[in-house]
Sequence to fold (306 residues):
Amino acid sequence: MAGRINNIHDKFIKQILADKDLAISFLREYLPSGIADTINFETLTSQNTSYLSRELRSSFSDMVWEAEIASGQKLHICLLLEHKSHIFPYVVFQILEYLAIGYRNQISEKRSPQLIIPILYYHGKQRWKLRSFETYFAKFPEILRRYLPIYETVFVNLEQISEEQIQNLKNGLLRSAIMTQKYYFDPEALNRSISRILGDLNPYLESGPVDTIFVYILQNSYLDHQHFKKSVEVLPSKLNTRIMSIYEELIQEGIEKGIEKGIEKGKIEVISRLLNTGKFSIEEIAAFTGVSEKFIKDKHQDYEHL
Fold:
Protein backbone atom coordinates (compact mmCIF):
# COMPACT_ATOMS: atom_id res chain seq x y z
CA MET A 1 0.00 0.00 0.00
CA ALA A 2 2.76 2.46 0.95
CA GLY A 3 4.42 1.96 -2.45
CA ARG A 4 1.19 2.79 -4.28
CA ILE A 5 0.62 5.89 -2.15
CA ASN A 6 4.14 7.19 -2.72
CA ASN A 7 3.88 6.55 -6.44
CA ILE A 8 1.38 9.43 -6.51
CA HIS A 9 4.21 11.73 -5.43
CA ASP A 10 6.75 10.16 -7.79
CA LYS A 11 4.29 10.54 -10.67
CA PHE A 12 3.72 14.18 -9.73
CA ILE A 13 7.36 15.23 -9.75
CA LYS A 14 7.94 13.26 -12.97
CA GLN A 15 5.05 15.07 -14.67
CA ILE A 16 6.36 18.43 -13.47
CA LEU A 17 9.94 17.78 -14.61
CA ALA A 18 8.81 16.39 -17.96
CA ASP A 19 8.54 20.09 -18.87
CA LYS A 20 12.02 21.04 -20.13
CA ASP A 21 11.97 24.57 -18.68
CA LEU A 22 10.98 23.25 -15.26
CA ALA A 23 13.61 20.50 -15.45
CA ILE A 24 16.28 23.09 -16.26
CA SER A 25 15.11 25.34 -13.40
CA PHE A 26 15.18 22.39 -11.01
CA LEU A 27 18.67 21.25 -12.05
CA ARG A 28 20.10 24.77 -12.03
CA GLU A 29 18.77 25.20 -8.50
CA TYR A 30 19.75 21.89 -6.94
CA LEU A 31 22.91 20.77 -8.74
CA PRO A 32 26.06 22.17 -7.10
CA SER A 33 26.82 25.48 -8.85
CA GLY A 34 30.17 24.31 -10.21
CA ILE A 35 28.48 21.37 -11.93
CA ALA A 36 25.54 23.40 -13.23
CA ASP A 37 27.97 25.92 -14.75
CA THR A 38 29.62 23.21 -16.89
CA ILE A 39 26.34 21.94 -18.40
CA ASN A 40 24.84 23.31 -21.61
CA PHE A 41 21.19 23.10 -20.56
CA GLU A 42 19.98 23.92 -24.06
CA THR A 43 21.09 20.39 -25.01
CA LEU A 44 19.12 18.77 -22.16
CA THR A 45 16.89 15.93 -23.38
CA SER A 46 14.81 13.43 -21.45
CA GLN A 47 15.87 9.82 -22.05
CA ASN A 48 13.42 6.97 -22.38
CA THR A 49 15.54 4.68 -20.25
CA SER A 50 15.92 3.44 -16.70
CA TYR A 51 18.83 1.94 -14.81
CA LEU A 52 16.62 0.28 -12.21
CA SER A 53 16.86 -3.44 -11.50
CA ARG A 54 13.81 -5.30 -10.23
CA GLU A 55 15.10 -4.99 -6.64
CA LEU A 56 15.80 -1.26 -6.96
CA ARG A 57 12.27 -0.59 -8.24
CA SER A 58 10.96 -1.34 -4.75
CA SER A 59 12.95 1.65 -3.48
CA PHE A 60 13.10 4.13 -6.36
CA SER A 61 11.58 5.62 -9.44
CA ASP A 62 14.00 7.39 -11.76
CA MET A 63 14.26 10.01 -14.48
CA VAL A 64 17.23 10.21 -16.83
CA TRP A 65 18.37 13.26 -18.80
CA GLU A 66 21.23 13.59 -21.26
CA ALA A 67 23.16 16.83 -21.73
CA GLU A 68 26.40 18.13 -23.15
CA ILE A 69 29.10 19.88 -21.18
CA ALA A 70 31.29 22.72 -22.41
CA SER A 71 33.85 20.33 -23.93
CA GLY A 72 31.11 18.70 -26.04
CA GLN A 73 31.09 15.44 -24.10
CA LYS A 74 27.74 14.03 -23.01
CA LEU A 75 26.68 12.95 -19.56
CA HIS A 76 23.60 11.48 -17.92
CA ILE A 77 21.83 13.11 -14.99
CA CYS A 78 19.68 10.63 -13.07
CA LEU A 79 17.01 11.73 -10.62
CA LEU A 80 16.28 8.97 -8.13
CA LEU A 81 12.91 9.42 -6.40
CA GLU A 82 13.04 7.65 -3.04
CA HIS A 83 9.60 6.18 -2.34
CA LYS A 84 9.99 3.92 0.67
CA SER A 85 7.93 4.81 3.74
CA HIS A 86 11.03 4.73 5.95
CA ILE A 87 14.60 5.96 5.69
CA PHE A 88 17.06 3.30 4.53
CA PRO A 89 20.50 4.15 5.97
CA TYR A 90 22.36 2.11 3.35
CA VAL A 91 20.83 3.85 0.34
CA VAL A 92 24.31 4.77 -0.95
CA PHE A 93 24.92 1.07 -1.60
CA GLN A 94 21.74 0.95 -3.68
CA ILE A 95 22.88 4.00 -5.64
CA LEU A 96 26.23 2.29 -6.27
CA GLU A 97 24.30 -0.64 -7.75
CA TYR A 98 22.29 1.81 -9.87
CA LEU A 99 25.47 3.41 -11.21
CA ALA A 100 27.03 0.01 -11.96
CA ILE A 101 23.94 -1.06 -13.93
CA GLY A 102 23.96 2.26 -15.80
CA TYR A 103 27.59 1.95 -16.90
CA ARG A 104 27.16 -1.74 -17.73
CA ASN A 105 24.18 -0.90 -19.96
CA GLN A 106 26.19 1.75 -21.79
CA ILE A 107 28.94 -0.77 -22.51
CA SER A 108 26.51 -3.51 -23.59
CA GLU A 109 24.92 -1.01 -26.00
CA LYS A 110 28.41 -0.40 -27.44
CA ARG A 111 28.38 3.28 -26.48
CA SER A 112 31.27 5.27 -25.12
CA PRO A 113 30.81 5.51 -21.34
CA GLN A 114 28.95 8.66 -20.32
CA LEU A 115 29.38 10.07 -16.83
CA ILE A 116 26.32 9.55 -14.60
CA ILE A 117 25.41 12.13 -11.96
CA PRO A 118 22.96 10.70 -9.39
CA ILE A 119 20.48 13.01 -7.63
CA LEU A 120 18.56 11.55 -4.69
CA TYR A 121 15.23 13.37 -4.18
CA TYR A 122 13.59 12.85 -0.79
CA HIS A 123 10.28 14.38 0.31
CA GLY A 124 9.50 12.31 3.42
CA LYS A 125 8.76 13.59 6.91
CA GLN A 126 11.66 11.99 8.77
CA ARG A 127 14.93 13.82 9.18
CA TRP A 128 17.63 12.32 7.03
CA LYS A 129 21.29 13.21 6.87
CA LEU A 130 22.76 11.23 3.99
CA ARG A 131 26.07 9.53 4.75
CA SER A 132 28.67 9.34 2.02
CA PHE A 133 29.82 5.91 0.88
CA GLU A 134 33.34 6.07 2.30
CA THR A 135 32.17 6.91 5.87
CA TYR A 136 30.97 3.32 6.29
CA PHE A 137 34.60 2.22 6.02
CA ALA A 138 36.23 4.89 8.20
CA LYS A 139 37.75 2.31 10.58
CA PHE A 140 39.75 0.68 7.82
CA PRO A 141 43.36 1.84 7.26
CA GLU A 142 43.77 4.52 4.59
CA ILE A 143 45.95 2.19 2.51
CA LEU A 144 42.93 -0.12 2.13
CA ARG A 145 40.29 2.59 1.66
CA ARG A 146 41.79 3.53 -1.67
CA TYR A 147 40.15 0.41 -3.09
CA LEU A 148 36.68 1.78 -2.40
CA PRO A 149 34.51 2.83 -5.38
CA ILE A 150 34.15 6.42 -4.20
CA TYR A 151 31.38 8.56 -5.69
CA GLU A 152 29.16 11.48 -4.67
CA THR A 153 25.39 11.88 -4.67
CA VAL A 154 23.49 15.15 -4.98
CA PHE A 155 20.94 14.98 -2.14
CA VAL A 156 17.78 17.09 -2.51
CA ASN A 157 16.01 16.78 0.83
CA LEU A 158 12.74 18.74 1.00
CA GLU A 159 12.59 18.27 4.76
CA GLN A 160 15.74 20.40 5.06
CA ILE A 161 14.78 23.04 2.48
CA SER A 162 13.18 26.02 4.19
CA GLU A 163 10.05 27.81 3.02
CA GLU A 164 12.17 30.93 2.49
CA GLN A 165 14.52 29.02 0.16
CA ILE A 166 11.55 27.75 -1.85
CA GLN A 167 10.10 31.24 -2.11
CA ASN A 168 13.43 32.41 -3.56
CA LEU A 169 13.05 30.04 -6.54
CA LYS A 170 12.79 32.14 -9.69
CA ASN A 171 10.33 29.91 -11.53
CA GLY A 172 6.84 30.30 -10.03
CA LEU A 173 5.65 26.94 -11.36
CA LEU A 174 8.55 25.12 -9.74
CA ARG A 175 8.06 27.19 -6.57
CA SER A 176 4.41 26.13 -6.37
CA ALA A 177 5.18 22.46 -7.09
CA ILE A 178 8.00 22.18 -4.54
CA MET A 179 5.99 24.00 -1.86
CA THR A 180 2.99 21.71 -2.43
CA GLN A 181 5.11 18.59 -2.12
CA LYS A 182 7.01 19.86 0.92
CA TYR A 183 3.79 20.40 2.87
CA TYR A 184 1.75 17.53 1.44
CA PHE A 185 1.68 15.67 4.78
CA ASP A 186 1.50 18.78 6.97
CA PRO A 187 -2.18 19.88 7.02
CA GLU A 188 -1.57 23.12 8.94
CA ALA A 189 1.29 24.29 6.73
CA LEU A 190 -0.45 23.18 3.52
CA ASN A 191 -3.66 25.06 4.28
CA ARG A 192 -1.70 28.09 5.49
CA SER A 193 0.28 28.19 2.24
CA ILE A 194 -2.45 27.31 -0.25
CA SER A 195 -3.19 30.93 -1.25
CA ARG A 196 0.47 31.55 -2.04
CA ILE A 197 0.82 28.23 -3.87
CA LEU A 198 -2.16 29.01 -6.10
CA GLY A 199 -1.21 32.67 -6.58
CA ASP A 200 2.23 31.70 -7.89
CA LEU A 201 0.51 29.89 -10.78
CA ASN A 202 -1.28 32.95 -12.16
CA PRO A 203 1.38 33.91 -14.77
CA TYR A 204 1.50 30.34 -16.10
CA LEU A 205 -2.16 29.62 -16.86
CA GLU A 206 -1.42 28.45 -20.40
CA SER A 207 1.20 25.97 -19.20
CA GLY A 208 0.37 22.25 -18.98
CA PRO A 209 1.99 21.64 -15.56
CA VAL A 210 -0.56 24.01 -13.96
CA ASP A 211 -3.28 21.34 -14.23
CA THR A 212 -0.87 18.74 -12.82
CA ILE A 213 -0.34 20.91 -9.72
CA PHE A 214 -4.09 21.55 -9.29
CA VAL A 215 -4.90 17.85 -9.50
CA TYR A 216 -2.10 16.95 -7.06
CA ILE A 217 -3.37 19.49 -4.54
CA LEU A 218 -6.97 18.31 -4.82
CA GLN A 219 -5.97 14.67 -4.31
CA ASN A 220 -4.66 15.55 -0.86
CA SER A 221 -6.93 14.19 1.87
CA TYR A 222 -5.52 16.80 4.30
CA LEU A 223 -6.81 19.69 2.20
CA ASP A 224 -9.39 21.87 3.98
CA HIS A 225 -11.87 22.30 1.12
CA GLN A 226 -13.68 25.21 2.80
CA HIS A 227 -10.43 27.12 3.20
CA PHE A 228 -9.38 26.10 -0.32
CA LYS A 229 -12.54 27.57 -1.84
CA LYS A 230 -12.14 30.81 0.11
CA SER A 231 -8.53 31.07 -1.10
CA VAL A 232 -9.67 30.55 -4.69
CA GLU A 233 -12.36 33.24 -4.43
CA VAL A 234 -9.82 36.04 -4.01
CA LEU A 235 -7.68 34.96 -6.98
CA PRO A 236 -7.85 36.67 -10.40
CA SER A 237 -11.02 35.60 -12.23
CA LYS A 238 -9.24 33.60 -14.96
CA LEU A 239 -7.28 31.57 -12.41
CA ASN A 240 -10.37 31.19 -10.23
CA THR A 241 -12.40 29.80 -13.14
CA ARG A 242 -9.65 27.36 -14.16
CA ILE A 243 -9.19 25.97 -10.65
CA MET A 244 -12.90 25.59 -9.90
CA SER A 245 -13.49 23.87 -13.24
CA ILE A 246 -10.87 21.23 -12.41
CA TYR A 247 -12.17 21.03 -8.83
CA GLU A 248 -15.72 20.28 -9.96
CA GLU A 249 -14.52 17.71 -12.53
CA LEU A 250 -12.53 15.83 -9.88
CA ILE A 251 -15.38 15.92 -7.37
CA GLN A 252 -17.77 14.51 -9.99
CA GLU A 253 -15.23 11.88 -11.00
CA GLY A 254 -14.91 10.84 -7.35
CA ILE A 255 -18.69 10.55 -7.01
CA GLU A 256 -18.93 8.43 -10.18
CA LYS A 257 -16.12 6.14 -9.02
CA GLY A 258 -17.86 5.73 -5.69
CA ILE A 259 -21.08 4.75 -7.46
CA GLU A 260 -19.22 2.29 -9.71
CA LYS A 261 -17.48 0.79 -6.69
CA GLY A 262 -20.82 0.37 -4.94
CA ILE A 263 -22.34 -1.31 -7.98
CA GLU A 264 -19.34 -3.64 -8.31
CA LYS A 265 -19.52 -4.55 -4.63
CA GLY A 266 -23.23 -5.31 -4.99
CA LYS A 267 -22.58 -7.57 -7.97
CA ILE A 268 -19.92 -9.51 -6.08
CA GLU A 269 -22.35 -10.10 -3.22
CA VAL A 270 -25.02 -11.36 -5.65
CA ILE A 271 -22.49 -13.64 -7.41
CA SER A 272 -21.36 -15.13 -4.10
CA ARG A 273 -24.94 -15.90 -3.07
CA LEU A 274 -25.77 -17.53 -6.42
CA LEU A 275 -22.58 -19.59 -6.31
CA ASN A 276 -23.35 -20.72 -2.77
CA THR A 277 -26.75 -22.10 -3.77
CA GLY A 278 -25.15 -24.48 -6.25
CA LYS A 279 -28.28 -24.21 -8.40
CA PHE A 280 -26.98 -21.98 -11.20
CA SER A 281 -24.32 -22.46 -13.84
CA ILE A 282 -21.55 -19.93 -14.42
CA GLU A 283 -23.14 -19.07 -17.77
CA GLU A 284 -26.49 -18.34 -16.08
CA ILE A 285 -24.90 -16.18 -13.38
CA ALA A 286 -23.01 -14.21 -16.06
CA ALA A 287 -26.32 -13.55 -17.82
CA PHE A 288 -27.99 -12.46 -14.56
CA THR A 289 -25.24 -10.06 -13.43
CA GLY A 290 -23.80 -8.82 -16.72
CA VAL A 291 -20.18 -9.69 -15.83
CA SER A 292 -17.82 -11.99 -17.73
CA GLU A 293 -17.72 -15.74 -17.19
CA LYS A 294 -13.98 -15.45 -16.43
CA PHE A 295 -14.71 -13.03 -13.57
CA ILE A 296 -17.22 -15.50 -12.09
CA LYS A 297 -14.87 -18.46 -12.56
CA ASP A 298 -12.17 -16.55 -10.67
CA LYS A 299 -14.65 -15.82 -7.87
CA HIS A 300 -15.74 -19.46 -7.87
CA GLN A 301 -12.11 -20.53 -7.33
CA ASP A 302 -11.77 -17.99 -4.50
CA TYR A 303 -14.75 -19.48 -2.69
CA GLU A 304 -13.52 -23.04 -3.22
CA HIS A 305 -10.26 -22.15 -1.46
CA LEU A 306 -12.01 -20.66 1.58
